[in-house]
Amino acid sequence: MADDPDSNPPRTVYEGRYQRMVVRGTWEYSERTHPGGLAAIIIAVTPDDRVLFVEQFRIPLQARTIEMPAGLVGDIDAGESIEQSSIRELEEETGWTAGHAEVLMTGPTSSGASSEKIAFVRATGLRKVGAGGGDASEDITVHEVPRAEAAAWLARKLEQGYELDAKLWAGLWMIDHNLDGSPRGR
What we know:
Elements: E1 11-15, E2 19-24, E3 27-32, E4 38-44, E5 50-58, E6 63-67, E7 70-72, H1 82-94, E8 96-97, E9 100-108, E10 117-124, E11 127-128, E12 141-146, H2 150-159, E13 163-164, H3 167-176
Parallel strand pairs: 4-10, 6-13
Antiparallel strand pairs: 1-2, 2-3, 4-7, 5-6, 5-12, 8-11, 9-10
Keywords: Hydrolase
Family: Belongs to the Nudix hydrolase family. NudK subfamily.
Cofactor: Mg(2+)
């Protein structure tokens, strides 16, 4: 078999600070270089029922995107948990902190192109502590959108030419539902 892992060991063709490009048999894919190769997307609703979104220019797309707050797990401290990373990233990107973070599920982001996995994390007990906007290397605009209007707001942003992270729709669904589809008590 051409892609048998035992007969085709991986070969790194490029390695940078955050990613490496690997060839294994006929597959070309990227891997995260930080421990665990995991990112977190944070589902956060403020006490006044507003969903937190972030807007930023993404160089690979050459476009502005709308996303939920997100970040790499363990990129600053290898011992940091998913929950700790999520709260740190939420505060850094949005200026809101959370009293609690709950991992809902973890899965691949693009299984044909990357080994990266992402954890959906629900942040609760939110409290405003700063302006947000990211660290010195980021230029993030924070949007606080009424939950009842979030889907329509996203549709308008798409019409305006923004790129929308497809995980947004899963995140919106997870605000009001448990993973088994049952309604989530608020």
